[in-house]
Amino acid sequence: MTAPNRTPVPSAAGPAVAAAAPTGNIYDLGYRHYEGKRYGRAYAMWSLFVESFRGVWGLGRPLQAKAAPFLLAGFYALPAVIQLAFSSVLARDIAAGDAVHLFNYHNYFADFYILVFLFCVAQAPELVCRDQRYQVLPLYFTRAMGRMEYALARLASLAAALFILLLVPALALFVGDVLMQPDAFKAIGDELPKALPSIPASALMAAGLAALSLAVSSFSPRRAYSAIGIVAYILLMESIPAALYSIGTVGQDGGSTWMDKLFIFSPITSLIGGSYWFFGQTLDSADFQGTLTSAGYVWASIASVVVMTGVLMYRYRRIPA
Length: 321
Fold this sequence. Notes:
By secondary structure, the protein is mainly α.
């Protein structure tokens, strides 16, 4: 039995084509074209900033998404609110000559920074991990917004949330200190110069923590891995300089050595020390090892913001999308 002849039969139109080239059709389904105003990149960044800011606080999401940010923010502000609530009692004790411990503007963050740190661990991965995990970044980058605009909008939203978190206790302390004085109007003028440095100090701390948290979180699409990465980075960068300084100064009488400069790599220590500079406070040797001044910590904190922001930008320039 012979095989059938599969040779194409010539036609009048010419020789047969072995395989037709793939073709496609475009159909008009009747959708209306957008004819409104196109607002550009600035408006796209603002929209993403608002959405990210709401996401940090869990607004527009289920109740469990609001639990962590609002509980941590409430616990951080609670001591200042308690001092405000008992301001009349504290004023009476102060007038009677009793020793009263009051929270101050310059060291409030140093006393309760662990709560702000946990806020960053919980909320920073929320901003950058889901978009990578569910591969929705191309939807952002195909519009007017670019990679740098996306990263900057996310960074600004977390920094704004942290700024509010840090400033609320300072406001409560200010109101409480004013209410402790017999003349409230005079007390406002006396307390305002003491409280105003809280604004730049909070801005520096918010920018530093936001840049660090997002830079570390952006390297993993998993929230758990990003949270562990933030904790590991902070613990290592706080403990290694302290350990090296202790080893390097064994048997020495003190003085300035190159070991002092290692503390500029400690993110939390640098932010706390830098915040003291805005209030004109000197660093206590019991809390700060070495000979670095508060001005040195300010420059270290600013450098950390720049470096971590650069790392975040680099990550989003290289991320596949």
